[in-house]
Write a structure and sequence with these properties.
8 strands
């Protein structure tokens, strides 16, 4: 694929499962993922994207629950949205 214009909002989907030949089935990868708050894509003409939301899945490949962490631009505070519950979220920033 070739992009002629870069999107205003970049959405990335991480493949978090892999085939396990021992069990002849797919297994979910529950390892931690470090996500940068600023993503500089040099190969894409130096475009910069700022992280403002992450959707997470808790559960297995056959079932589970989704929740989201979203950054408020007005307060620069992160919140977790889990069904009808919304509460402040502490985000670890590694420099």
């Amino acid at each position: 694929y070739e992009l002629s214009k870069f999107p205003e909002v970049l959405i990335l989907h991480l493949k978090r499962f892999q085939f396990d030949p021992t069990y002849n089935s797919y297994k979910k990868d529950n390892s931690r993922v470090s996500i940068p708050h600023h993503l500089l894509l040099l190969l894409l003409q130096g475009n910069t994207y700022d992280l403002y939301a992450v959707v997470c899945h808790a559960g297995t490949l056959s079932g589970g629950h989704y929740y989201a962490s979203i950054k408020s631009f007005e307060e620069c505070q992160w919140y977790e949205f889990n069904d009808s519950m919304v509460y402040p979220k502490v985000i670890c920033i590694h420099v």
